[in-house]
């Protein structure tokens, strides 16, 4: 048995952002030492905004971010045009990419190929090929290991587009899977498979607000919750997983939350 995930709780969004920034910079620096590139998978929801606040909203007198070494992938994506309001790419672009100061460098970004909006199996296969080109070429790995995955937690315990009870949770046949009946709209999406989502060198979840407290209590404190998608990622990633939450989100959670910074 490895160590359990880390749960870090903060009083304010600003404090959370400071720690998330430190977490990302640490992951970036380790990745650059290891292989000269920083491969990050991000999801949608509130994450792009929180990430932008963490990375761009603070000035600490130094310049530890080197976006020119970043490759940004999508942990899940909706099958919509890239300028559609439901697009996770658009959220990341609007919140973060468009605001990165030139002197911090320009990341390589891997959006979905919108040629395949009507064929999500092909879209998933093509996105997997994008991963193969980036990961296998460098590392000859069987399961791609993101340097950092930044994920959200839905009110039902879903993460990426892996929903509770979905057969996709048992599908380890591919790195990227299509989903055509997402319980949350839009229905057509692609998602990292569970083995890939749980395989990041570092995995960060961000969940804030009182609306998350019941699902976080289940995920951390109950056996059933360990079987929810977020709980399964916790189980696979163990101490490689760190949750960044505010106090309202963990009210009533017995699992020990560490206060404040990393
Ligand atoms: O699947 C989706 O449609 C959402 O993008 C979802 O995955 C989101 O990331 C979580 O529901 C957390 O959302 P918040 O971070 O906004 O709470």
Automatic annotation (TrEMBL):
Its EC number is 3.1.1.31. The keyword Hydrolase applies. Keywords: Hydrolase. Residues 12-243 form the Glucosamine/galactosamine-6-phosphate isomerase domain. GO terms for molecular function: 6-phosphogluconolactonase activity. Pathway: Carbohydrate degradation; pentose phosphate pathway; D-ribulose 5-phosphate from D-glucose 6-phosphate (oxidative stage): step 2/3. It comes from the Eukaryota. It is an enzyme of class 3 (hydrolase). GO terms for biological process: carbohydrate metabolic process; pentose-phosphate shunt. It catalyses: 6-phospho-D-glucono-1,5-lactone + H2O = 6-phospho-D-gluconate + H(+). Belongs to the glucosamine/galactosamine-6-phosphate isomerase family. 6-phosphogluconolactonase subfamily. Hydrolysis of 6-phosphogluconolactone to 6-phosphogluconate. PANTHER family: 6-PHOSPHOGLUCONOLACTONASE (PTHR11054). This is 6-phosphogluconolactonase. It comes from Mytilinidion resinicola.
């Amino acid at each position: 048995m490895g160590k359990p995930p880390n749960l870090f709780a903060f009083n304010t969004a600003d404090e959370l952002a400071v720690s998330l920034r430190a977490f990302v910079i640490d992951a970036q620096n380790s990745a650059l030492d290891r292989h000269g590139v920083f491969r990050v998978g991000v999801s949608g929801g509130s994450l792009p905004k929180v990430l932008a606040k963490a990375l761009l909203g603070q000035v600490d007198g130094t310049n530890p971010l080197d976006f020119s070494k970043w490759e940004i992938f999508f942990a899940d994506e909706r099958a919509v045009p890239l300028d559609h309001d439901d697009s996770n790419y658009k959220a990341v672009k609007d919140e973060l990419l468009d605001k990165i100061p030139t002197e911090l460098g320009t990341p390589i970004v891997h959006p979905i190929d919108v040629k395949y909006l009507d064929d999500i199996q092909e879209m998933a296969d093509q996105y997997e090929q994008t991963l193969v080109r980036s990961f296998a070429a460098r590392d000859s790995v069987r399961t791609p290991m993101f340097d950092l995955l930044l994920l959200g937690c839905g009110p039902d315990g879903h993460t990426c587009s892996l929903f509770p009870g979905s057969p996709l949770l048992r599908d380890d046949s591919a790195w990227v899977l299509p989903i055509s009946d997402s319980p949350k709209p839009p229905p057509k999406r692609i998602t990292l498979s569970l083995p890939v989502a749980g395989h990041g060198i570092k995995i960060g979840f961000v969940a804030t607000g009182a609306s998350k407290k019941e699902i976080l209590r289940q995920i951390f404190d109950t056996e059933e919750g360990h079987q929810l998608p977020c709980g399964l990622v916790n189980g696979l990633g163990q101490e490689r997983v760190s949750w960044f939450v505010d106090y309202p989100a963990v009210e009533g959670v017995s699992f020990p939350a560490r206060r404040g910074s990393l």
